[in-house]
């Protein structure tokens, strides 16, 4: 392997949505100011997009195996889609939803499933309380909430156990929040949960399709936006970063087969992946504490392609919520043309980890059996089955994002966005609005670009 | 840097007590069985000992800046000390202890400070309950405790808040456990705390000197044992491991400037440091979840050397417990000869992190002011002041050990000691008895050696 050496003004680590937004924003600003600047984007994978990944199957169907939704109120994602004139369409939601709960299958409309009144009231009351508490968490500094110490001392699961009387309500809320955090409610702190809820507006928005985070899809798949953004950028694929030497004057970034000197560096890796990079000198303890202490959730997408969206004929929307597994939640993920029919099931937390222990054909069998319970035996015979378990992806090590166990956000939260020497931190985990979502990744990249632009001096020619 | 290549039967990663015990045990067994085998120990630091570190100051005084005690009932450490005929002496404890609590300074004997009766009863009752619950946690498999799910759902801090009525009792228990875990009670799970207590016998043992974990010292410092163990081993210093390629047939370990092929590998790095090594192929998700999810505590030792142990003349033991900082707990850490006088103060968790933000002279000033509050103004003028904040050490990234936030031990505990292909896991975090202590590190190395010896076939000559 030959060690090529290059130099640039800004090295962006990671060509996910945070890195791409940062690189485009810097290029835009330099162009507008007629300041020449060289931005190099270093990406470990053989593609751009990060935790967004669209693939085309043997039959020509495109499938989003990573982030796929434009949510209501996600301004930054809407902005970037508009900039590149990428067309969208509403998520398929017509028809009755299915609830499979304690062995009983019922149909319902809207967001309120048919459950005993005590359970429904329990859920509604808990959502009300959570939304109220969430509003008290400052998005720029969750650790400054008046009750931050109390809320960060307990897990979200502890709060549910101590505050929600109905077991069914607790279970429904656990499953709901598991679809948001991709981790068991016991593992993340109440403070982080409240921040996350506020960051995405409220619990209804996080959990909903119409008017919520799952409202709109991208024609052809979300990765199209990443590819459009990457056009014209200097993106180097298959260059995992192994070591970053830094000082007040700049940094040297060592990738496999390439060394890049840069005046400023934007790191977009999620915190646990930052631990896989050797920093010389070491980063401050508070920053390291985030790398050590914020694990990724575990999530996978299981997708079956059918000639037709057969559930629609039965008046079903393709959406299901269930206390059985492996997929607790499903969506109709079909393309806008209406054909083929695409069913999408999510596996999360322990359910994802269990499924990950199976072979591909075992996974297919158990997921299709699950789809059949929800939508009938036609679900057993798709054209194609495909899945992606993100905790097996070495450049993600989990999904959707990294979360804070109790105690961490209060003690080390301020280090999330705190630049260190020439190093700036982006990535959806650093976002204040829609943290954990594509929208948050984009705004974090734009924010890091602003930080860097404040420091850039015109590059001496040569 | 020239890339040397070597091959061996067993590569041991880390020359701390786990790695040294593993390497010696394998060498012993091979010698006993007349099986030739080559063991190479790869160490990132320029010394052996890991989180045990003895240094000699300008005046000739030796000081333990890392692990320093042989506790009551620590059989494995006693065994290894005896094997190398390393002399010990009792920790200096004669005299009254000091309690500085809510601004009031009192003296007391033994382990029970002078506090209001409700606080003392609250502490005693909590210890009784914790010890009882701890006994129900199986040391080999904490996740199989009957109440494992309930106990792992909450932080130790949540349990204190919900179960200990007296605020002073809660505070005293928090400070006590902070000296054990080097982390705030909100950050680690009740299940992990209970396992840890059982692993070290009970709460009194963990917190005590006489009859407890802080009973005995090593003449000349604990690192002497590490150096004795390293004699005759093939230890390569300053060889940080960057990448491990592995398959069913063996592994290739890439260090700075050296590549070692090995049939078996023993990794003794604490879980968060394992994330800094690139594994190809990636390790299973459950193992990765431990690397991502078990952060290190933060702890530092602050040491002042005086011509005489002046506190003894005042009838004081040098031990103090206080709700003020930066050092909440102090010990007389003098050598057996009685001179000079060595005061040792611990900083832990947020206290350690705060101190770590100061310059060396600021740290000295605040620690000595703290010692003076406890033992009088003579404490202000030591011969020498020295400290070590372990979270600033790039090859420890914290101390004393890695802990489990809520939810982690239950979900991923079984991966702690589960070998993966040719890779075996040791280190005090994997120990069942005295986990988190030197004794646990030693037994974990011996256990990993037994695993590896079961797999080793005689090496073909050449």
Task: Set down the secondary structure blueprint.
The structure is a homodimer of 462-residue chains.
Chain A lengths: L3 E10 L3 H16 L6 E4 L11 E3 L5 E3 L10 H9 L4 E3 L5 E6 L2 E5 L8 H19 L12 H5 L3 H8 L3 H15 L8 H10 L3 H5 L8 E3 L4 H8 L3 E3 L4 E7 L2 E6 L2 E10 L3 H4 L3 E3 L4 H9 L5 E8 L9 E7 L6 E4 L8 E8 H8 L3 H16 L8 E6 L18 H5 L10 E3 L12 H16 L9
Parallel strand pairs in A: 1-2, 1-12, 2-9, 6-15, 10-13, 12-19
Antiparallel strand pairs in A: 3-4, 5-8, 6-7, 10-11, 11-12, 14-17, 14-18, 15-16, 16-17
Helix pairs in contact in A: 1-15, 2-15, 3-6, 3-7
Protein described:
The structure is a homodimer of 462-residue chains. In chain A, strands 1, 2, 9, 10, 11, 12, 13 and 19 form an eight-stranded mixed beta sheet that branches. The longest helix of chain A has 19 residues, at 117-135. Chain A is an alpha/beta fold and 462 residues long. In chain A, helix 2 crosses helix 15 and helix 3 (117-135) packs across helix 6. Chain A folds into three domains: 4-50 and 223-294 and 405-453, FAD/NAD(P)-binding domain, CATH 3.50.50; 54-74 and 88-94 and 212-219 and 297-392, Polyamine Oxidase, Chain A, domain 2, CATH 3.90.660.10; 119-200, Guanine Nucleotide Dissociation Inhibitor, domain 1, CATH 1.10.405.10. The first copy, chain A, has helices spanning 17-32, 75-83, 117-135, 148-152, 156-163, 167-181, 190-199, 203-207, 223-230, 271-274, 285-293, 349-356, 360-375, 408-412, 438-453; strands at residues 4-13, 39-42, 54-56, 62-64, 88-90, 96-101, 104-108, 216-218, 234-236, 241-247, 250-255, 258-267, 278-280, 299-306, 316-322, 329-332, 341-348, 384-389, 423-425. Chain A has 15 helices and 19 strands. At the A-B interface, helix 5, helix 11 and helix 12 of A face helix 5, helix 11 and helix 12 of B.
